[in-house]
Design a protein that fits this description.
Strand 2 and strand 3 (238-241) form a beta hairpin. The model is unreliable at 1-16 and 90-133 (pLDDT under 50). The protein has 19 helices and 15 strands. It has helices at 22-34, 45-63, 69-86, 111-118, 135-155, 159-164, 167-184, 191-206, 212-216, 249-261, 310-315, 321-332, 347-355, 398-405, 422-431, 446-459, 466-476, 540-545, 549-555; strands at residues 220-226, 231-235, 238-241, 273-277, 283-287, 297-301, 337-341, 364-368, 380-384, 412-415, 438-442, 479-485, 491-503, 506-520, 526-532. Helix content is 40%, strand content 17%. The protein folds into 4 domains: 17-86, no CATH class; 111-206, no CATH class; 212-301, Beta-Lactamase; 310-551, Rossmann fold (3-Layer(aba) Sandwich), CATH 3.40.50.
């Protein structure tokens, strides 16, 4: 048997019947006495296999032999094959009787054909042949087969060895076992259904079960699980209910636990809420009962495999070409930028696009609850918060990380989201030489984002006069970019607002760009204009220092 194999084949030993292994030869004698060969044609192969396993366990216990699950599976397979070779041929039933499934094909697919169809990677999209039948009926057949095959499969594999295999190799070996189990259990599936069955089983073993096919679809941006029987997706900016379901609450809870365990976190009754991330960087929020009444809720913000740039956003009509130029200059000129917007409006995507304009020679420290930023620079230090342990100790907050980052000699600090007392430390960092820092904030308009920052000073317990707070905000921030997901599903930058300074107790700002809605086309897509204000930016002098004042003024 090769290292890490899930499926192994009988080893030959000299002096045993037909080259059988010694363990199998010893057990075979007992099996022959309890299961006469002439009785086999009328018995279900799966029943025979379970009977042999019972005999094997009894013999092993009496002999003091310890067999792991993988060796047990090998012995059962070896003995079943041996006794069926000795068994007399079963007479063929008349055409009109003897079929377990009346509408099934005349005979199940051959082993060679079935296994060949299962060799492909489950991640590949299968091609549905013509005349394959009703899709829902096929899905029900696969689900019913999975319920029957799954517990037997788990008895015949070595989970530790399975986890070491690549997905493709595991699919191949599981496919071989599934082929045997389908024959033993008299389950007839066509090739496409067998492949779907293997995909389902492998997803349950390695991946996120029913969610795998949604994660593989690059057009899906969000996945929302509301209990085991309701899964929504966002595609093209629109929410849609899928036909994806989980077996029960325990199945869904198991998937939730698998997600958080991979990054060293937990989700249970003592910690029923958690932020996590998938291996590809997708952001996940999980909340389980008793807080989630109808079953565990999983919200996944998918990680975009295609890197979004400012030029890409311009082509997609998220911003105008002039906006893209101003954003590139703002990032190059090391402006402190705050990206404001609602949930799902595209703040992190825009922050990633801004970050691509940072010079390759700068040292960047990113701070997030669940790491999802995709910086391309070579010198990046990624920091992530940590929740408290079961004793309520060991928590590391965003504010702790912001404070620590100041001792790490960063050129820029990028804060994934500013939502609490960490705002004080972030603004202080912006005011103490860490120019070019960026963050996001939840707010519906640029002026509201300034108000939220003021409130965060109060959350930090700092008893400062409001004038002092506003002075610190005005001196720290240079640019506020407001992004919104509009009713046609497209994310657009609606305001580019410059923080000019402070007059009395009021922070003064000016809009450099605004989005003005005009109409709606036949496809429901909003038609509007990204309108420049024509005002001279206050950071024009800083742009001149970097030799970028002329393109800046031309863009405005």
């Amino acid at each position: 048997m090769t290292d890490g194999a899930v499926v192994s084949f009988p080893t030959e030993a000299a002096g045993t019947p037909n080259g059988m292994s010694q363990d199998a030869a010893r057990i075979l004698a007992t099996v022959r006495s309890e299961i006469p060969p002439e009785s086999l044609p009328g018995m279900n192969r799966g029943v025979v296999a379970r009977h042999i396993k019972t005999i094997m366990e009894r013999e092993a216990e009496s002999s003091g032999i310890v067999l792991n699950l993988l060796r047990q599976r090998d012995l059962v397979t070896e003995i079943v094959n041996a006794i069926y070779v000795e068994a007399p041929a079963k007479p063929r039933a008349p055409e009109s009787v003897g079929k377990r499934f009346p509408d099934a094909p005349e005979a199940p697919p051959s082993r060679a054909t079935s296994i060949a169809s299962l060799m492909a990677d489950p991640g590949d999209d299968p091609v549905v042949p013509e005349g394959s039948g009703n899709k829902n009926k096929s899905k029900e057949s696969v689900e019913e087969a999975a319920l029957r095959v799954r517990p037997i499969l788990m008895e015949r594999i070595d989970p530790a060895a399975a986890m070491k295999l690549t997905r493709k190799e595991l699919a191949r070996q599981v496919g071989e076992i599934v082929g045997e189990l389908l024959r033993e259990e008299n389950i007839q599936l066509n090739q496409l259904e067998q492949r779907d069955l293997v995909t389902t089983l492998v997803n349950d073993m390695l991946g996120l079960g029913p969610l795998e096919q949604l994660l593989a679809d690059e057009k899906i941006t969000d996945i929302m699980v509301n209990g085991p029987k309701q899964v929504y997706i966002e595609k093209g900016g629109k929410l849609t209910l899928t036909d994806i379901t989980f077996r029960d609450n325990a199945h869904l809870q198991g998937i939730a636990s698998r997600i958080v365990t991979r990054i060293g976190r937990r989700v249970d009754e003592t910690s029923p809420m958690v932020d996590a991330r998938l291996e590809d960087g997708s952001r996940v929020n999980i909340i389980i009962p008793p807080l989630a009444i109808d079953g565990a809720s999983i919200s996944i913000r998918k990680f975009a495999k295609k890197k979004i740039t400012l030029d890409t956003m311009s082509r997609q009509n998220n911003i105008s070409e002039s906006m893209a130029t101003v954003f590139k200059i703002a990032s190059r000129c090391r402006l402190n930028i705050l990206i404001s917007g609602g949930t799902g409006s595209g703040k992190t995507t825009l922050l990633n696009a801004f970050s691509r304009m940072i010079d390759q020679g700068e040292r960047i420290v990113t701070i997030e609850d669940a790491a999802e930023l995709q910086l391309q620079q070579p010198h990046v230090v990624r920091l992530e918060t940590r929740p408290a342990n079961l004793e309520g100790q060991g928590e590391v907050t965003i504010r702790d990380l912001v404070r620590n980052s100041l001792r790490m000699r960063p050129d820029r600090i990028i804060l994934g989201e500013c939502r609490g007392s960490e705002a004080v430390d972030m603004l202080q960092a912006m005011n103490t030489g860490h120019e070019g820092s960026m963050s996001t904030i939840h707010a519906n308009r640029p002026r509201e984002s300034l108000t939220r920052l003021e409130n965060m000073f109060g959350m930090a317990g700092m008893n400062m006069p409001i004038s002092a707070v506003r002075t610190q905000i005005a001196s720290a921030l240079d640019l506020i970019v407001q992004v919104s997901r509009m009713r046609d599903g497209i994310r657009r930058v609606t305001h580019v607002t410059e923080v000019v300074g402070i007059e009395g107790d009021t922070i003064t700002t000016q809009d450099l760009f605004t989005y003005e809605y005009e109409s709606e086309d036949r496809d429901g897509i909003l038609v509007g204009t990204f309108k420049p204000s024509g005002l001279r930016p206050a950071f024009a002098e800083k742009a001149a220092y970097f030799g970028l004042d002329r393109p800046l003024l031309e863009a405005i």
